[in-house]
Write a structure and sequence with these properties.
Elements lengths: L1 H28 L2 H25 L6 H21 L4 H16 L2 H23 L1 H100 L4 H24 L11 H15 L3 E6 L9 H20 L5 E9 L2 E8 L11 H12 L3 E6 L5 E8 L4
Parallel strand pairs: 1-2
Antiparallel strand pairs: 2-3, 3-5, 4-5
Helix pairs in contact: 1-2, 1-4, 1-6, 2-3, 3-4, 3-5, 4-5, 4-6, 5-6, 6-7, 8-9, 9-10
Protein backbone atom coordinates (compact mmCIF):
# COMPACT_ATOMS: atom_id res chain seq x y z
CA UNK A 1 0.00 0.00 0.00
CA UNK A 2 2.80 2.41 0.85
CA UNK A 3 4.59 1.76 -2.44
CA UNK A 4 1.37 2.32 -4.38
CA UNK A 5 0.95 5.68 -2.66
CA UNK A 6 4.54 6.51 -3.53
CA UNK A 7 3.81 5.85 -7.22
CA UNK A 8 0.78 8.13 -7.08
CA UNK A 9 2.80 10.86 -5.35
CA UNK A 10 5.36 10.59 -8.15
CA UNK A 11 2.67 11.08 -10.81
CA UNK A 12 1.35 14.11 -8.92
CA UNK A 13 4.83 15.68 -8.94
CA UNK A 14 5.08 14.99 -12.67
CA UNK A 15 1.76 16.77 -13.15
CA UNK A 16 2.95 19.82 -11.23
CA UNK A 17 6.20 19.90 -13.24
CA UNK A 18 4.25 19.66 -16.52
CA UNK A 19 1.88 22.50 -15.55
CA UNK A 20 4.82 24.69 -14.55
CA UNK A 21 6.61 23.88 -17.82
CA UNK A 22 3.47 24.69 -19.81
CA UNK A 23 3.15 28.01 -17.98
CA UNK A 24 6.76 28.93 -18.74
CA UNK A 25 6.37 28.02 -22.43
CA UNK A 26 3.16 30.03 -22.71
CA UNK A 27 4.82 33.08 -21.18
CA UNK A 28 7.87 32.73 -23.42
CA UNK A 29 5.96 32.32 -26.69
CA UNK A 30 2.93 34.59 -26.38
CA UNK A 31 2.20 38.27 -26.04
CA UNK A 32 0.75 39.85 -22.93
CA UNK A 33 -2.70 40.15 -24.53
CA UNK A 34 -2.80 36.41 -25.21
CA UNK A 35 -1.47 35.57 -21.76
CA UNK A 36 -4.37 37.39 -20.09
CA UNK A 37 -6.55 34.72 -21.65
CA UNK A 38 -4.22 31.69 -21.59
CA UNK A 39 -2.95 31.85 -18.00
CA UNK A 40 -6.44 31.94 -16.37
CA UNK A 41 -7.47 28.98 -18.57
CA UNK A 42 -4.37 27.07 -17.51
CA UNK A 43 -5.15 27.75 -13.84
CA UNK A 44 -8.75 26.58 -14.30
CA UNK A 45 -7.52 23.40 -16.06
CA UNK A 46 -5.17 22.70 -13.15
CA UNK A 47 -7.91 23.05 -10.54
CA UNK A 48 -10.38 20.94 -12.55
CA UNK A 49 -7.84 18.12 -12.80
CA UNK A 50 -6.88 18.40 -9.13
CA UNK A 51 -10.54 18.62 -8.01
CA UNK A 52 -11.50 15.55 -10.04
CA UNK A 53 -8.63 13.34 -8.86
CA UNK A 54 -8.64 14.41 -5.20
CA UNK A 55 -12.32 15.09 -4.56
CA UNK A 56 -14.67 13.43 -7.05
CA UNK A 57 -12.75 10.15 -7.34
CA UNK A 58 -11.62 10.01 -3.69
CA UNK A 59 -15.19 10.53 -2.45
CA UNK A 60 -16.77 8.13 -4.99
CA UNK A 61 -18.93 10.80 -6.58
CA UNK A 62 -21.37 9.79 -9.38
CA UNK A 63 -19.70 8.96 -12.68
CA UNK A 64 -21.51 11.72 -14.60
CA UNK A 65 -19.79 14.31 -12.40
CA UNK A 66 -16.44 12.87 -13.44
CA UNK A 67 -17.44 12.85 -17.11
CA UNK A 68 -18.50 16.51 -16.91
CA UNK A 69 -15.16 17.50 -15.37
CA UNK A 70 -13.21 15.57 -18.04
CA UNK A 71 -15.27 17.14 -20.85
CA UNK A 72 -14.81 20.63 -19.37
CA UNK A 73 -11.06 20.14 -19.03
CA UNK A 74 -10.81 18.85 -22.62
CA UNK A 75 -12.76 21.82 -24.01
CA UNK A 76 -10.50 24.29 -22.20
CA UNK A 77 -7.40 22.49 -23.50
CA UNK A 78 -8.76 22.58 -27.05
CA UNK A 79 -9.63 26.28 -26.72
CA UNK A 80 -5.96 27.04 -26.04
CA UNK A 81 -5.06 25.74 -29.52
CA UNK A 82 -7.08 28.56 -31.12
CA UNK A 83 -4.73 31.14 -29.59
CA UNK A 84 -1.39 29.41 -28.91
CA UNK A 85 0.58 28.24 -31.95
CA UNK A 86 3.12 26.07 -30.11
CA UNK A 87 1.04 22.98 -29.29
CA UNK A 88 1.15 23.66 -25.56
CA UNK A 89 -2.35 22.21 -25.57
CA UNK A 90 -0.85 18.81 -26.45
CA UNK A 91 1.28 18.94 -23.31
CA UNK A 92 -1.79 19.72 -21.22
CA UNK A 93 -3.69 16.93 -22.93
CA UNK A 94 -0.96 14.48 -21.89
CA UNK A 95 -1.79 15.28 -18.25
CA UNK A 96 -5.51 14.89 -18.82
CA UNK A 97 -5.31 11.55 -20.64
CA UNK A 98 -2.61 10.23 -18.29
CA UNK A 99 -4.63 10.86 -15.11
CA UNK A 100 -7.75 9.47 -16.81
CA UNK A 101 -5.89 6.29 -17.79
CA UNK A 102 -4.47 5.76 -14.29
CA UNK A 103 -7.64 6.41 -12.30
CA UNK A 104 -10.54 5.46 -14.59
CA UNK A 105 -11.43 2.54 -16.90
CA UNK A 106 -9.34 2.32 -20.07
CA UNK A 107 -12.32 3.04 -22.35
CA UNK A 108 -12.50 6.55 -20.92
CA UNK A 109 -9.02 7.28 -22.23
CA UNK A 110 -9.80 5.95 -25.73
CA UNK A 111 -12.88 8.18 -25.94
CA UNK A 112 -10.80 11.12 -24.77
CA UNK A 113 -8.07 10.49 -27.37
CA UNK A 114 -10.57 10.16 -30.22
CA UNK A 115 -12.34 13.39 -29.23
CA UNK A 116 -9.05 15.30 -28.93
CA UNK A 117 -7.56 14.15 -32.25
CA UNK A 118 -10.84 14.82 -34.04
CA UNK A 119 -10.92 18.33 -32.61
CA UNK A 120 -7.31 18.95 -33.71
CA UNK A 121 -8.18 17.92 -37.26
CA UNK A 122 -11.20 20.22 -37.21
CA UNK A 123 -9.21 23.20 -35.87
CA UNK A 124 -6.47 22.60 -38.45
CA UNK A 125 -9.06 22.48 -41.22
CA UNK A 126 -10.68 25.69 -39.95
CA UNK A 127 -7.34 27.48 -40.00
CA UNK A 128 -5.76 26.04 -43.15
CA UNK A 129 -8.64 24.59 -45.17
CA UNK A 130 -9.67 21.03 -45.85
CA UNK A 131 -7.31 20.73 -48.85
CA UNK A 132 -4.29 21.36 -46.62
CA UNK A 133 -5.72 18.91 -44.04
CA UNK A 134 -5.79 16.06 -46.58
CA UNK A 135 -2.12 16.66 -47.34
CA UNK A 136 -1.09 16.88 -43.69
CA UNK A 137 -3.39 14.25 -42.19
CA UNK A 138 -0.85 11.41 -42.27
CA UNK A 139 1.98 13.39 -40.54
CA UNK A 140 -0.57 14.71 -38.01
CA UNK A 141 -1.88 11.23 -37.27
CA UNK A 142 1.67 9.97 -36.86
CA UNK A 143 2.80 12.88 -34.65
CA UNK A 144 -0.28 12.97 -32.45
CA UNK A 145 -0.91 9.22 -32.49
CA UNK A 146 2.59 8.05 -31.54
CA UNK A 147 3.10 10.59 -28.75
CA UNK A 148 -0.37 10.11 -27.28
CA UNK A 149 -0.13 6.31 -27.59
CA UNK A 150 3.18 6.43 -25.72
CA UNK A 151 1.69 8.51 -22.90
CA UNK A 152 -1.40 6.31 -22.65
CA UNK A 153 0.73 3.14 -22.69
CA UNK A 154 3.07 4.37 -19.96
CA UNK A 155 0.14 5.56 -17.87
CA UNK A 156 -1.55 2.18 -18.22
CA UNK A 157 1.64 0.45 -17.03
CA UNK A 158 1.71 2.77 -14.02
CA UNK A 159 -1.94 1.88 -13.37
CA UNK A 160 -1.13 -1.85 -13.45
CA UNK A 161 1.77 -1.31 -11.07
CA UNK A 162 -0.43 0.61 -8.64
CA UNK A 163 -3.03 -2.16 -8.75
CA UNK A 164 -0.43 -4.85 -8.08
CA UNK A 165 1.07 -2.88 -5.20
CA UNK A 166 -2.37 -2.31 -3.68
CA UNK A 167 -3.25 -5.98 -4.11
CA UNK A 168 -0.02 -7.02 -2.40
CA UNK A 169 -0.69 -4.47 0.33
CA UNK A 170 -4.16 -5.94 0.97
CA UNK A 171 -2.73 -9.47 0.99
CA UNK A 172 -0.04 -8.43 3.46
CA UNK A 173 -2.65 -6.82 5.70
CA UNK A 174 -4.77 -9.97 5.59
CA UNK A 175 -1.75 -12.16 6.35
CA UNK A 176 -0.77 -9.94 9.27
CA UNK A 177 -4.28 -10.13 10.69
CA UNK A 178 -4.36 -13.91 10.21
CA UNK A 179 -0.94 -14.22 11.86
CA UNK A 180 -2.03 -12.10 14.85
CA UNK A 181 -5.17 -14.18 15.22
CA UNK A 182 -3.11 -17.38 15.00
CA UNK A 183 -0.74 -16.12 17.70
CA UNK A 184 -3.68 -15.16 19.91
CA UNK A 185 -5.34 -18.54 19.41
CA UNK A 186 -2.03 -20.31 20.01
CA UNK A 187 -1.46 -18.37 23.23
CA UNK A 188 -5.01 -19.09 24.38
CA UNK A 189 -4.62 -22.77 23.51
CA UNK A 190 -1.29 -22.92 25.30
CA UNK A 191 -2.74 -21.25 28.36
CA UNK A 192 -5.67 -23.66 28.32
CA UNK A 193 -3.29 -26.62 28.02
CA UNK A 194 -1.27 -25.37 30.98
CA UNK A 195 -4.42 -24.91 33.06
CA UNK A 196 -5.65 -28.36 32.09
CA UNK A 197 -2.29 -29.89 33.00
CA UNK A 198 -2.29 -28.08 36.33
CA UNK A 199 -5.81 -29.32 37.00
CA UNK A 200 -4.83 -32.86 36.07
CA UNK A 201 -1.76 -32.80 38.30
CA UNK A 202 -3.74 -31.28 41.18
CA UNK A 203 -6.34 -34.02 40.83
CA UNK A 204 -3.59 -36.67 40.67
CA UNK A 205 -1.94 -35.33 43.83
CA UNK A 206 -5.29 -35.00 45.62
CA UNK A 207 -6.41 -38.52 44.74
CA UNK A 208 -3.12 -40.29 45.47
CA UNK A 209 -0.34 -38.44 47.25
CA UNK A 210 -2.56 -36.30 49.51
CA UNK A 211 -4.51 -39.34 50.64
CA UNK A 212 -1.30 -41.31 51.28
CA UNK A 213 0.33 -38.50 53.24
CA UNK A 214 -2.81 -37.94 55.31
CA UNK A 215 -2.94 -41.64 56.19
CA UNK A 216 0.77 -41.57 56.99
CA UNK A 217 0.31 -38.65 59.39
CA UNK A 218 -2.46 -40.52 61.18
CA UNK A 219 -0.32 -43.67 61.34
CA UNK A 220 2.61 -41.73 62.82
CA UNK A 221 0.29 -40.26 65.44
CA UNK A 222 -0.72 -43.83 66.37
CA UNK A 223 2.93 -44.82 66.63
CA UNK A 224 3.60 -41.83 68.83
CA UNK A 225 0.84 -42.91 71.26
CA UNK A 226 1.85 -46.59 71.16
CA UNK A 227 5.41 -45.67 72.12
CA UNK A 228 4.04 -44.69 75.55
CA UNK A 229 1.07 -47.08 75.92
CA UNK A 230 2.00 -50.34 74.12
CA UNK A 231 5.59 -50.45 72.83
CA UNK A 232 5.19 -54.07 71.70
CA UNK A 233 2.87 -53.01 68.87
CA UNK A 234 5.17 -50.20 67.76
CA UNK A 235 7.29 -52.22 65.23
CA UNK A 236 4.16 -53.43 63.42
CA UNK A 237 2.68 -49.96 63.17
CA UNK A 238 6.02 -48.48 62.06
CA UNK A 239 6.15 -51.09 59.30
CA UNK A 240 2.75 -49.89 58.15
CA UNK A 241 3.98 -46.30 58.17
CA UNK A 242 7.01 -47.35 56.15
CA UNK A 243 4.78 -49.03 53.57
CA UNK A 244 2.71 -45.86 53.33
CA UNK A 245 5.91 -43.86 52.75
CA UNK A 246 6.95 -46.21 49.94
CA UNK A 247 3.50 -45.90 48.40
CA UNK A 248 3.70 -42.08 48.49
CA UNK A 249 7.17 -42.16 46.96
CA UNK A 250 5.90 -44.33 44.11
CA UNK A 251 3.05 -41.89 43.57
CA UNK A 252 5.57 -39.05 43.22
CA UNK A 253 7.61 -41.07 40.72
CA UNK A 254 4.49 -41.79 38.66
CA UNK A 255 3.55 -38.09 38.65
CA UNK A 256 7.05 -37.11 37.49
CA UNK A 257 6.97 -39.77 34.80
CA UNK A 258 3.68 -38.35 33.54
CA UNK A 259 5.50 -35.12 32.70
CA UNK A 260 7.84 -36.84 30.23
CA UNK A 261 7.39 -35.94 26.53
CA UNK A 262 5.24 -38.32 24.55
CA UNK A 263 8.23 -39.13 22.30
CA UNK A 264 10.02 -40.52 25.38
CA UNK A 265 7.12 -42.59 26.70
CA UNK A 266 8.28 -45.86 25.10
CA UNK A 267 11.82 -44.94 24.02
CA UNK A 268 15.08 -44.18 25.75
CA UNK A 269 16.55 -40.69 25.73
CA UNK A 270 19.03 -41.56 22.98
CA UNK A 271 16.41 -43.27 20.83
CA UNK A 272 14.03 -40.31 21.28
CA UNK A 273 16.68 -37.78 20.18
CA UNK A 274 17.63 -39.93 17.17
CA UNK A 275 13.93 -40.25 16.30
CA UNK A 276 13.24 -36.51 16.28
CA UNK A 277 16.41 -35.92 14.21
CA UNK A 278 15.40 -38.52 11.62
CA UNK A 279 11.80 -37.30 11.47
CA UNK A 280 12.97 -33.71 10.89
CA UNK A 281 15.35 -34.69 8.08
CA UNK A 282 12.66 -36.82 6.44
CA UNK A 283 10.06 -34.03 6.47
CA UNK A 284 12.39 -31.10 5.62
CA UNK A 285 15.48 -30.38 3.53
CA UNK A 286 17.51 -29.78 6.68
CA UNK A 287 20.58 -31.92 7.32
CA UNK A 288 21.18 -32.65 11.01
CA UNK A 289 24.39 -34.12 12.35
CA UNK A 290 24.08 -35.82 15.77
CA UNK A 291 27.41 -36.29 17.51
CA UNK A 292 26.56 -38.18 20.70
CA UNK A 293 29.64 -39.00 22.76
CA UNK A 294 27.69 -40.32 25.75
CA UNK A 295 27.76 -44.02 26.47
CA UNK A 296 24.51 -45.77 25.62
CA UNK A 297 24.71 -47.55 28.96
CA UNK A 298 24.67 -44.31 30.89
CA UNK A 299 21.51 -43.60 32.88
CA UNK A 300 20.51 -40.00 33.44
CA UNK A 301 18.00 -38.55 35.81
CA UNK A 302 14.58 -38.28 34.22
CA UNK A 303 14.53 -34.47 34.66
CA UNK A 304 17.84 -34.16 32.81
CA UNK A 305 16.68 -36.37 29.97
CA UNK A 306 13.49 -34.33 29.56
CA UNK A 307 15.36 -31.02 29.72
CA UNK A 308 17.97 -32.06 27.13
CA UNK A 309 15.29 -33.45 24.84
CA UNK A 310 13.26 -30.22 25.04
CA UNK A 311 16.35 -28.07 24.37
CA UNK A 312 17.20 -30.10 21.25
CA UNK A 313 13.59 -30.07 20.09
CA UNK A 314 13.18 -26.29 20.56
CA UNK A 315 16.57 -25.49 19.00
CA UNK A 316 15.79 -27.50 15.86
CA UNK A 317 12.43 -25.76 15.57
CA UNK A 318 13.94 -22.28 16.02
CA UNK A 319 16.76 -22.97 13.55
CA UNK A 320 14.30 -23.95 10.84
CA UNK A 321 11.48 -21.49 11.59
CA UNK A 322 13.41 -18.34 12.45
CA UNK A 323 16.88 -18.90 11.01
CA UNK A 324 15.89 -20.75 7.80
CA UNK A 325 18.85 -23.03 8.46
CA UNK A 326 19.53 -26.07 6.26
CA UNK A 327 22.27 -27.56 8.42
CA UNK A 328 22.25 -28.22 12.16
CA UNK A 329 24.95 -29.82 14.29
CA UNK A 330 24.19 -31.36 17.71
CA UNK A 331 27.05 -32.33 20.02
CA UNK A 332 26.55 -34.10 23.38
CA UNK A 333 29.34 -35.15 25.68
CA UNK A 334 30.36 -35.62 29.32
CA UNK A 335 32.99 -33.19 30.58
CA UNK A 336 34.26 -33.92 34.08
CA UNK A 337 31.19 -33.54 36.30
CA UNK A 338 28.97 -31.89 33.71
CA UNK A 339 26.94 -32.83 30.68
CA UNK A 340 27.62 -30.57 27.70
CA UNK A 341 25.15 -29.96 24.89
CA UNK A 342 26.03 -27.71 21.95
CA UNK A 343 23.66 -26.99 19.04
CA UNK A 344 24.88 -24.91 16.07
CA UNK A 345 23.03 -24.01 12.86
CA UNK A 346 23.98 -22.14 9.67
CA UNK A 347 20.86 -19.94 9.66
CA UNK A 348 20.49 -16.20 9.15
CA UNK A 349 21.51 -15.36 12.71
CA UNK A 350 20.80 -12.02 14.35
CA UNK A 351 22.57 -9.06 15.94
CA UNK A 352 20.38 -8.70 19.04
CA UNK A 353 19.03 -11.89 20.59
CA UNK A 354 15.46 -11.48 21.79
CA UNK A 355 14.40 -14.29 24.09
CA UNK A 356 10.93 -15.48 23.26
CA UNK A 357 8.80 -18.06 25.04
CA UNK A 358 10.84 -21.00 23.74
CA UNK A 359 14.25 -19.62 24.72
CA UNK A 360 12.96 -18.54 28.12
CA UNK A 361 11.59 -22.04 28.59
CA UNK A 362 15.01 -23.52 27.78
CA UNK A 363 16.69 -21.20 30.28
CA UNK A 364 14.18 -21.97 33.03
CA UNK A 365 14.52 -25.74 32.53
CA UNK A 366 18.31 -25.69 32.61
CA UNK A 367 18.59 -23.27 35.53
CA UNK A 368 16.07 -25.43 37.39
CA UNK A 369 18.68 -28.22 37.20
CA UNK A 370 21.43 -25.88 38.50
CA UNK A 371 22.83 -25.71 35.00
CA UNK A 372 23.57 -22.82 32.69
CA UNK A 373 22.75 -22.00 29.08
CA UNK A 374 24.33 -19.49 26.68
CA UNK A 375 22.94 -18.21 23.39
CA UNK A 376 25.20 -16.59 20.81
CA UNK A 377 24.68 -15.37 17.26
CA UNK A 378 25.73 -12.81 14.68
CA UNK A 379 24.17 -11.62 11.45
CA UNK A 380 24.64 -14.20 8.71
CA UNK A 381 26.57 -16.64 10.93
CA UNK A 382 23.84 -18.82 12.38
CA UNK A 383 22.83 -19.45 15.98
CA UNK A 384 24.55 -21.35 18.79
CA UNK A 385 23.11 -22.80 22.00
CA UNK A 386 25.44 -24.15 24.69
CA UNK A 387 24.12 -26.03 27.74
CA UNK A 388 25.97 -27.31 30.78
CA UNK A 389 24.24 -29.42 33.47
CA UNK A 390 25.78 -30.97 36.59
CA UNK A 391 26.08 -34.73 35.96
CA UNK A 392 24.71 -37.35 38.26
CA UNK A 393 24.40 -41.08 37.61
CA UNK A 394 21.23 -42.82 38.74
Amino acid sequence: MLKALQVRNLTNWIKVFTYVSATVLLIANNTFDKLTYLIPILIVIFFINYWRDNFLVSNNKPIHHIWISIALELMLIISISFIDKNDINLLLFYICVSSTTIIHPFRYSISLVVAYIASMFFIYAMKNGFTSLTKSIIPMVFNYGVSIAFVVGMSYLVKLQIREKEKLGHMNDELEQAYKKLIENSAASQKLSVEQERTRMAREIHDTLAHTLTTLIVQLEVCKKLAALDPSRLPTELEKAQELSRSGFNDVKRSIKALRPQAMEEKSFFASVASIVNETMESTNVHITLDNLLSKDIKLQSQIEVALFRVIQESITNAIRHGQADEIKIHIKKDNSSLKLCIVDNGAGCINIKKGYGMKGIQERIEGLNGRVEFSSSQGNGFKTEVSIPYEVV
